[in-house]
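[agent] plan:
  1. take the single chain provided in the ticket
  2. run structure prediction with default settings
  3. attach C-alpha cells to the ticket
  4. add a short note for the reviewer (M.T.)
[agent] executing step 1
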Amino acid sequence: MKRLSETLQHVFQPAVGRFPVNPFPSILLAMAFSFSVAALLLLETNQIVFAQESGDKVTQLTAACERKEAKSCSELAGMYMRGTGGVTRDEKSAFAFLQRACDGGSPEGCASLGTMYFFGKGTAKDERKALEFDQRACDAGSSAGCANLSGYYLRGVVVPRDEKRAVQLAQRSCDADNRCNNLGSDYLNGTGVKRDAKKAAALYERACKAGFVDGCYNLGSLYAAGQGVARDDRRALELFQSSCEDANDPDSEACHDAGFMYANGRGTPKDEKRAASLYLRACDGGDPSGCNNLGVMYLNGEGVEKDEGRAIAFFRRSCDHGGPNGCQNLAMECRNKSATEGCQK
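[agent] step 2 finished; step 3 output follows
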C-alpha cells in the first residue's frame, strides 16, 4: 500500500497568525547573530579572536542589564533562547532576562515573557500570566502584545471569545508597525469582518514588506492557491523560501511547503534532492509534515538513498510531533516488524 504523503490540500492553507507570535521579534535579536557564514570560514586564529569578542559582548551586555538597561536584557534573552553569541541555549536564563527587560520598561520584553508563559518555556505554563503580560505589553505600545491579545479573544483562551475585539486588537497591531498578519487572516477567514481575500493578500504583503515572516508565508500560500491574487507558483516559492531561511524567525511550515514545490515541480524544475533538504529543515524545526514527507522519500528512494530504517525514524518523529499521516505510516511500516529498529519506542 502506498504510504501517505501530505497533500496539496494540507499544504496551502493560509492560517490565522501564529498564536502567540514569535517570542523573539527582530527587535530582540538584532544583535544575537555574532557569527556569519563568512566568519565560520576564517582561519583558526581569527575564530579564536571572534569567540573572545563574542564573550566580551556577553559580559558587556550582562553588566548593562545589571544596570537595568532593558534593551541589553532583551538582547541577552534572545541569545540564550537561540544559543547564539557564544552562550549555550538556556530557556531559564532567557526567561530571567526577559523578566528584567519587562520590569525595566521594555514592552517587547513583556510580550516575549507572555509567550514564554503561554508555551511553558523556561517556566511553568500559565496562560493567565501570559495574558497578563501580553496585556501589559499591548497597553505599552507593543504590536506583538496586541497581536497576541487578538489571538486570545479570537480563540476564547482565558477570556470569552470575542471576534470583534480580536479584530480591533489586530488592527491596532497592524497600525503600530505593520504587523498585519493577524488582521489579514481575519479578513481571509471572515472572522469579525466581512470575508475579503484581496484585502487579506494586501495585508499579508504589508506585513511581509515590514519583515514579518508570517505575512510572507501566508502571502505565499495565497499565491500558491490563487486566492485573492492570481496564482503564481514562482512567487509562492520565493516567499516560502524567504520565510524558511529568515535569520531571526525561520518558519518550519514554509520549509515544508517550499520542499513540496520542489518535489512536485511547481514554480521550479522538479528537484527531489532540494525537496529532501527542505523537508529535513522543516522536520528539525518541529513540522510533522516535513518529517512525514521525508520519511516517504527515504522509503521510496526519492532524492535520497532508499533506507527503510530512516523512513521509520522520520515517520516516528512526525507522529511524535502530532502528525496523523506520520502515525499511520509508522503503523503500516511496523506491522509485523516489532523487532525492527525504530518500531519499538
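[agent] step 4 note for reviewer: Residues 54 and 85 are 6 Å apart (CA to CA).
[agent] ticket updated
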